[in-house]
Amino acid sequence: MCDQDILDEQIRYYRARAGEYDEWFLRLGRYDRGEEHRAEWFADVAEAAAALERAKPSGDMLELACGTGLWTQRLAPAAARLTAVDASPETLQINRERVRSDRVEYVQADIFRWRPDRKYDFVFFGFWLSHVPEARFEGFWRMVGEAVKPGGTVFFVDSAFEPESTYKGHRIERAPDGVMERKLNDGRQFRVVKIYYEPEPFMKRLARLGWEGAAARTRRFFVYGCVHPRMD
User: Fold this and answer.
1) Domain range holding 62?
2) Residue 136 and residue 209: Cα distance in Å, rounded?
3) How far apart are CA 18 and CA 20, in angstroms?
4) What is the CATH number for 156?
5) Based on the number of CB atoms within 10 Å of its own CB, is 24 exposed (0-12), middle (13-18) or buried (19 or more)?
6) Per-residue confidence (pLDDT) for residue 169, from 0 to 100
7) What is the pLDDT of residues 176-198, one digit of tens each?
């Protein structure tokens, strides 16, 4: 199966999952693993959010794979304007209702087919990088490079490899081919790309593509990074 088939299935998954996505992030329903787990999770969320704040998002911003707005709501107040791109009309609608900001312009588009029509001061993507197939990694970062202004900033946050970050009764395993099955509350299953990164090897790889900056891992659940194109 070619990666476009998987990517099309991934879009279908996130469209179908739109109404239950927040349960994962908020540790509700089948993702509720108890108070200790929840406290660790939200401590890690706070660390990533604090790092985003230190990156000083401002100006003309771009958010890729904006989803239901959990990070859009953090970006919008600091933006002169914010372009929020996602392939799912269902998640875009939830995002609009959550954020309710006239600073945000919503664009429904497949990120692998979308191209920026201008350069941005700040580019953000949350829980998206891990869904980029290995064969499209370099092409994705070329597109990001096209989107950010000289001297601009790119910030990302994503899942670290943590077996208990998924729903109760299930443990995540690394997929050798970068593709894993995901199940919805109603039992439907979809295949998605899921590739986990560790900060040091990730930054070495990104440096070879002309980027510099730093990445870190929270105590358990997330990785995040703040990078910019190297000025030669």
Assistant:
1) 3-229
2) 13
3) 6
4) 3.40.50.150
5) middle
6) 79
7) 899 999 999 999 999 999 999 99
